[in-house]
Specification:
single chain; about 280 residues; mainly alpha
Length: about 280
């Protein structure tokens, strides 16, 4: 594992021009970031410039702690799963887009945006473990001869397995915390999880209806998996709860490894559809 820390090149004099110069120093990171995870507009950058002074103390605390926590998480994966990560972890100060994500390599690199992270140790470790969980999912799948050409990356069933697997791994790597932290990556997620658990069947039924209504995958992603969604129930990213429910149910039935390898099955979509049908009766 390599850690690419861009914090030292973040500008002291904050202007749109100095931010763009920072991005140009790390083109491989920020070209992907702005393509997928954040708008690259003057309006967005001006909004970020207004927020940085208020958040700077938190950003510095995150930076002071994050490398050690990344190493702790990596060591836990090595101990628990005998996994090595031939990846780069990029540490950036973004423009208030995603907090963390993997890129589109088969064995993906990870990027963590420090302006969107808490400096509190347990939630920060969980977020790191979640993103490493995506990489671990692909590493295990690759070792089991995954035919990557067959993966429908932009389909909600794929997202369910990916997010369910990463959430599962985060629970194994950073165990015994308040359950809501594994979904919110903060100490403030109890209301979200209480709502999700209290409305499990309602959520699964609505998720299934949306899938079968003709709504585009892009619309479903925004509503169920994006921090910018949540119009239906007033809570964002409820797809992560659906994903966790699915992973837990399959793990009880077929075990951890066979669950995370479900996307290797020719019948993968039919398997997920059958699970949804069983849970909306």
């Amino acid at each position: 594992m390599n850690i690419n820390d861009t914090f030292g090149s973040f500008p002291d004099n904050l202007t749109i021009q100095s931010l763009r110069q920072y991005y140009e120093k790390h083109p491989d990171i920020f070209n992907f970031y702005f393509q997928i995870h954040c708008k690259n507009t003057d309006i967005r950058l001006n909004q970020a410039i207004q927020k940085y002074p208020t958040d700077w103390d938190s950003i510095e605390k995150v930076h002071d702690r994050i490398v050690k926590l990344i190493e702790i998480v990596e060591q836990a994966y090595q101990s628990n799963y005998q996994l090595n990560f031939p990846i780069t972890v990029n540490l950036i100060v973004g423009a208030y887009g995603s907090n963390g994500y993997t890129n589109h390599k088969i064995i993906p690199d990870i990027t963590l945006a420090m302006e969107r992270l808490t400096y509190k140790e347990d939630p920060l470790k969980v977020l790191i473990a979640h993103e490493f969980g995506h990489a671990a999912h692909n590493i295990f799948s690759n070792k089991h001869h995954m035919d990557w050409k067959l993966v429908q990356w932009d389909h909600p069933y794929t997202w369910l397995l990916q997010e369910g697997t990463a959430t599962h791994f985060s629970k194994q790597i950073v165990p015994d915390l308040n359950d809501s932290i594994y979904f919110s990556y903060t100490d403030n997620g109890d209301e979200w999880l209480k709502f999700a658990r209290g409305n499990r069947q309602v959520l699964l039924k609505k998720f299934t209806e949306d899938l079968r209504s003709g709504r585009s995958n892009k619309e479903i992603f925004k509503e169920w998996f994006s921090i910018n969604g949540g119009e239906t129930f007033g809570f964002t990213r409820l797809g992560y709860f659906v994903a966790d429910c699915m992973f837990q149910d399959f793990e009880k039935e077929i075990g951890e490894m066979d669950t995370l390898l479900l996307w290797k099955e020719d019948r993968f979509f039919r398997i997920v559809e059958a699970w949804l049908d069983q849970n909306i009766i």
